[in-house]
Amino acid sequence: MTTTELREAILAHLKYALGTDPDRASVTDWRIALSYAIRDRIVDPWFASTQAAEAAKGKRVYYLSMEFLIGRLLEDAVVNLGLMESASAAMSSLGLDLDTVLSDEPDAALGNGGLGRLAACFLESLATVGCPAYGYGIRYEHGLFRQSFVDGRQVESPEDWLRQPHAWEFERPGAAFEIGFGGRVASNAGRTEWTPAESVVAEAYDTPVIGWKGRWANTLRLWSAKPTTFFDLDRFNRGDYYGAAEPEALARTISRVLYPDDTTEEGKRLRLKQEYFFTAASLNDILRRFLSEHDDLRQLPRKVAIQLNDTHPAIAGPELVRLLHDVHGMPLDEAIVTARGCLSYTNHTLLPEALERWSEGLMGSLLPRHLSLIERIDAAHAAAHPDRGITMRENGEVKMGELAFCMAHKVNGVSALHTELMKRTVFSELHRLHPERILNQTNGVTPRRWVLSANPRLSGLLTDAIGEEWVDDLERLHEIEPLAEDAGFREDYAAAKRANKEELASYLRAERGVSVDPEAMFDVQIKRIHEYKRQHLNILEAIALWQEIGDNPNGDWTPRVKIFGGKAAPGYVFAKEIIHLINSVAQVINSDPVTSKFLKIDYPANYNVSLAERLIPASDLSEQISTAGKEASGTGNMKFALNGALTIGTLDGANVEIRELVGAENFFLFGMDADEVMARRAIDGHAARAIEADPRLARALDAIRDGAFSPGERGRFDAIVSNLSQADYFLVSSDFTDYWRAQREVDVAYRDRTAWMRMAILNTARSGWFSSDRTIRSYMSQIWNAQGLLADAGT
Ligand code: 26Q
Asked: Which residues carry this modification: N6-(pyridoxal phosphate)lysine (predicted)?
């Protein structure tokens, strides 16, 4: 598409779709007009892919996820269609800067963090490799809350991404299913029938997902809850206007808001309704599509692969059995086997508090038929394995991990270490019974978003050096390995990093009034705030460093800017204390005239995908410091390594594999490994011992305790101090000394800029394996038995 064609298309949409003219158009109007013009280019490849998939009559993959953390869509589409240059030229011919227009788009934040972002990377890779697939989820009216800081404390407000016209979705009133809750189960002539007491309508909204070079496109289908009747006319006519609107409001509540919480006990009933709502709608849709092409439901596993993104859609097991058995009359045992042939389950956490359990009381009242089917499935499994010591129900609760495991033909972890720990801990018994079921699929990230579009400077350099093929064949980055020894390439690589840092520095100055020196090391920790991720270990090190610089202000310190980003679940009190501590420490340290040329701390509020795209390319050091054994994989760690940030990290999650690939000499390792963590916890008074052995740690904790960061309010952070001195379950105190040591090694290494750049280049060169294209191909061959159809789309 030429610049002129694109320009004409934009102007036409501005006029005919938005009803405005160039003199009156706002940035948002231009952005939406551009989005429509780009969307027009997606529709043909999208149709071609759908038709190719129908013609092939092969297997389709269905990715069921409560979360899709997509971020902005326009830039992704422009990049994948190869229209970056035309779009930029078209916009400037209209007097606009493309970047300004692109950044006007609100993030689609329909996810909390890693699990949701993984789903978004997978969608993009599924399209890039040409695998016929659908993403299924919920069209939340409000995505993840907006975070702001008031006096250093997190304050949440609702997010409103749908307020502006949404150019990417197509409403499908014709694709709708009624979803029931509650009611009675009755047996009739040998057939069991569930009559729900209430129901809502799930209506589909489709967003096309376009792969690299526009060769293939899939669909993300999100369900929105609508009432079965719009309002109660009788009540309206009686003048009861609120009452009349009630059925609609109640129904819509189901897709109103994304759960921001991986910890609290709140809103259980609504959460279970959301899970069943989108799972049932998706399975109905999948069966409808299957039956439009085939007639024998026993063939289902040959045509349908359903991936459960954690246990959130695990009710898919009993629901599919219900559809096959109750509705379509397949014998129960066969229905269970058939369902299992379609289903597979990804586990993303071993933390006991994050493993879903539903009380049988709640499940029985909302989903009575499913509860009875779970009992049948459990009984069948127990009968097949009489020696097994466990069941999927315990203390009046259904354990969704066990249910998902038993109803899946494959169960995967998300990094090598995590998968080993799954076998050894939560699923040890089930693994013994089904030794073939668990397998590893190490996570990945899409290089289109996380390198090509987030880091155009580095991308240009890579393409100049080795051609463009790396974009969808990321292991080709190995070809730049020899260039680590090339002084000219190192300088170019350093210049790209430097320019990214300058851009971030001006952003921080403009948006936050913070001034940072681009010469300093940018040390970044961005992720959800959680005790196991140990942002408090990072801030403790900052405090100790600040004290040491203060003792010796004329020392030869390596200047650093520590940047934090991330949200805490609104109900997670301790995580919110950590946020408050970081902000309070930042305020004191940043205003210290003696130390501030060596150490600054910044914590921009409302971390999201778009901010990650700014921060990662500008980072020198990536903080991946979770307690070993707790971070299932991490995916931010991969984005940093690809963009040439060196990692300081523990042997946790995918850090282990990153270190193996980039080389131990290009990775700053510290801390206990998972086995040492378990042994350390058994030592009485481990925290007190660690503090006693390290005067720096003791002094940093004393400063917090004495109110150095809470003037006039001693004891403000006692919850944190006493946690770290006593129970310290996540072993912050015990790992501090080694973390400090590694950080000082980082300081020394950063001063040798040649050696540092060599290491950074090797990180980029050796991280190509972390492309989500590799992950998706591996799911296709090892779990889904699905074929790519790139050649068939003919686009
Ligand atoms: C559960 C029940 C009720 C309400 C909420 C939840 C809930 C919501 C979100 C539970 C867990 C999550 C999110 C988990 C998550 O993001 N896990 C991360 O997944 C990444 C992708 O595999 C990994 O890289 C991270 O290590 C893992 O923490």
From this structure: 639
Ligand 1 closest atom vs CA 118:
21
- Of the residues 166, 527, 567, 659, only one is catalytic, namely 527
Q: How far apart are CA 560 and CA 555, in angstroms?
A: 14
533 as an active site residue: the answer is yes
Establish whether residue 259 lines the binding site of ligand 1, counting it when its CB lies within 6 angstroms of any ligand atom: yes
* Ligand 1 contact via 94 beta carbon (within 6 Å): no
Is 635 part of the annotated catalytic residue set? yes
CA distance 440 to 779: 10
65 pocket-lining for ligand 1 (C-beta < 6 Å): no
Whether 264 is in the pocket of ligand 1, judged by its Cβ within 6 Å, is: no
- Partners of residue 235 on adjacent β-strands: none
Query: What's the rounded Cα separation, in Å, for the pair 393 and 298?
Result: 29
| Ligand 1 contact via 632 beta carbon (within 6 Å) | yes
Model confidence pLDDT, tens digit, residues 146-168: 999 999 999 999 999 998 888 99
Distances from the Cα of 186 to the Cαs of 204, 367, 368, in angstroms? 30, 13, 11
By DSSP bridging, strand 521-526 and strand 153-157 are unpaired
DSSP 8-state class, residue 353: G
CA distance 733 to 694: 9
For the chain, the average pLDDT equals 96
For ligand 1, atom 11, which residue shows the shortest CA distance? 262
- Are residues 317 and 378 in contact, defined by beta-carbon separation less than 8 angstroms? no
Backbone angles phi, psi at 352, to 5 degrees: -55, -35
Q: Is 80 in the pocket of ligand 1 (CB under 6 A)?
A: no
The answer for residues whose C-beta is within 8 angstroms of residue 414's C-beta and 6 or more apart is: 118, 346, 347, 348, 440, 441, 442, 443, 632, 633, 653, 654
Q: Does the predicted interface ipTM exceed a cut of 0.85?
A: yes
Summarize the confidence of residues 584-613 as an average pLDDT: 97
Distance CA 108, CA 293 (A): 33
CB 492 within 8 A of CB 499: no
Per residue in 196-224, pLDDT (tens digit) is 999 999 999 999 999 999 999 999 999 99
**What pTM was estimated for this model as a whole?**
0.97
Determine the Cα angle at 300 with ends 298 and 305, to 5°.
Answer: 150
Residue 795 has pLDDT above 60, yes or no: no
SS3 150: strand
Among 60, 59, 62, which residue's Cα sits nearest to residue 344?
62
Neighbour tally for 135: CB within 10 Å? 26
In this structure, is the dihedral angle defined by the CA atoms of residues 728, 731, 735 and 739, taken in order, positive or negative? negative
Task: Give yes or no for a contact between 222 and 138, defined as CB atoms under 8 angstroms apart.
Answer: yes
Which domains does the chain possess?
57-72+107-443+777-793 (3.40.50.2000), 447-768 (3.40.50.2000)
- The yes-or-no answer on residue 497 being catalytic is no
Q: Which run of H or E residues covers position 465?
A: helix 456-466
pLDDT at residue 635, rounded to an integer: 98
Q: Compute the distance between CA of residue 86 and CA of residue 72 in angstroms, rounded to an integer.
A: 19
- State yes or no: is 437 an active-site residue: no
Per-residue pLDDT band for 564 (boundaries 50, 70, 90) equals very high
CA atoms within 13 A on the CB side of 735: 33
Best residue for ligand 1 mutational test, from 118, 145, 262 (most atoms within 8 Å of Cβ): 262
- Tokens representing 182 are 């509650």
- The answer to whether the beta carbons of residues 358 and 400 sit under 8 Å apart is yes
Angle in degrees, 0-180, between the axes of helices 332-342 and 368-384, rounded to the nearest 10? 90
Task: For Cα atoms 313, 318, 320, give the angle at the middle one, nearest 5 degrees.
Answer: 85
For residue range 352-405, what is the model confidence (pLDDT) as tens digits?
A: 888 899 999 999 999 999 999 999 999 999 999 887 766 899 999 999 999 999
Distance from the CA of 348 to the center of ligand 1, in angstroms?
A: 6
Active site residue 501: no
pLDDT of residue 236: 84
